[in-house]
Structures
1.
Amino acid sequence: MADHEVLIVGAGASGIGAAIRLRQAGITSFAVLEKATALGGTWRDNTYPGCACDVPSALYSYSFAPNPSWTRAFAGQAEIQAYLESTAARYGVVPHLRFGVEMLRASWSDADQHWEVSTSSGPVTARALITGTGPWHEPLMPSVPLDFDGPLFHSSRWDHSVDLRGKRVAVIGTGASAVQFVPAIQPLVSSLQLYQRTAQWVLPKPDHYVPSAERWLMRRVPAAQRLLRAVEYGGMEALGVGFRHPAVMRQIQRVGAWHLRRSVRDPLLRAALTPSYTLGCKRILMSNDYYPAVASSNVSVHPSGVASVSGSSVVGVDGSVTDVDVVVLGTGFKILDLPLASRVFDAAGKSLDDHWQGSPSAYLGTTVSGFPNLFNLLGPSLGTGHTSAFMILEAQLEHTVAALTALRDRGWSSLSVRPSVQAAFNSAVQAALPSTVYETGGCASYYHDANGRNSFNWPWSSRRLRDQVGRFSPGDYAIRSGVEVAS
């Protein structure tokens, strides 16, 4: 018999959500492996100045655990981390957490019908494996020489021991993290050299402090919080229409162009900050203070990539050489290099990486043919440009928990998605993507994998995602009960 009915890898929002839903379904024989010493995932790791959510707070939470106490319309890192910690405690999953335990390898045993897992604290077995390691996990380091004499760190590994006051700082990258931390550090530094390989669209952020009276109302009148969540969901869904109809997105793009014109008076700088692609082709960024910060007298924008960092200098692709004291990398994450893909093996000894060959794919972003009783949270082909990761996660958890409950209640030993079902789903995704802004917007983005295939995006509405991903249909799976395969 396996040590656990279910093993969850990762104690971020995905792993905590999975643990809560398992307990609610009466599945209590499970453990959550977390290699760090605290829960929280990306919200534990990303502590850079200005770190906050770019989805409205009311949507950025579990639907079954609404938080009436958000102090901002778009919550900051510390509040989100505190929410995850309090929710884990409130729903009784803390005793299931195994901190400081890293999963090293997981192999499916066809003979024993369970997962054999090697960890940093020893071997363990489980009937089912849930991966909750997320796409915002491993920092993406630039592929240029980084031989710097001073402090150099990635934004997701912020070195708070480095005092930036009065320093000459270089920031490499202008993505979602940089848009948040550049305004936070710009007033402190003597000079900031911003290396921008690609200009980004930045929309105004409808953020504000939530008054105590409003928070009191949310606590006392749950229907008010549900209404707020519904209104914000509707607004984000309206934006989502543009991703599927690029002509609509080009109209919304005018807001970004107006925001840039209003904030940056220098025509040369404004030209350097003006993107050449359609809004939504890359991740949409929102900020009210990024453009004013970049337009400040102590900031120099280099519309160029970086060739190397050597000694005390940053060398741009354009040949510029700038001496600095500190280098901050805002270069994002290995979004499609799923952290555990090289560590999870089928019965024949082939890893997920071996199967995928650079193009991750799964059925409904969740299950992979040949890997029985494996469920990947926030997996491939589920990313949207406009909605909350919690909504995606909860749809997957509906599917996953229904499958695990069926395993337990119907006496099945394993289930594996049929190859034809997985292939049909991914063919439909790839057929729907070409008309979206992700593919027609004229940019290169992290949505595309090593083979140039869009392995990240969901091409339809989030309502369809909720309905389709959340539904578990046993007929989609090859099911084993004992040694017999159900037809």
2.
Amino acid sequence: MEKIKVLLADDQELILESLHIVLSMEEDLEIVGLAKNGEEAIKGCEQFQPDIVLMDINMPVMDGVAATAQIKERIPAIKVIMLTSYREVEYVLAALSHGAEGYLLKAIHPRDLAAGIRVVHAGGTLITQEMASKMIKSMNNTSSTKSNEYGLSTREIEVLHKLALGLRNQDIAEALFLSEGTIKNYISTIYSKLNVSGRREAARKARDSGIMDH
């Protein structure tokens, strides 16, 4: 029987070690690599070609969300499960939007963790009903937590921030792991929502209205 190859990414040595020990006890799992940040996780994926990555969200150098985006772009076949210590909803949603297969809370019982890995390996996803309803809410209410008078979505505010900093479309695209065409679409939507015709005007209006304080 072929084992499921797993890469573990967590900046806390203790968690990394305990995950390693616990999961190694499962006959059908094989830990092929350990990473302490997002960059190491990407390198580990290229080197070991794991089936599954257990990815911590908050890590130095590069966080789990950014690493997930890059892994999914480079090696889409690798499946990513986010590991979260508390309900970091926004981060989990961001990771899922980049193609992560789901998330598990770190406090989970090792048996359930192994079961979760098997579900994802078999082509399933790990999203609780609670998270699914939050996702639907955030999709319906595009201006989610960062509501503002112009009805800009969280993503549009991110683009606007970078626009106001003077970044070129190409730079914004790279920073947000999106295509330049997508950024152009965002910018035209932002302009029409703010009722402005250019960057300077958009930045000024954003600052005047307090959107940029987020």
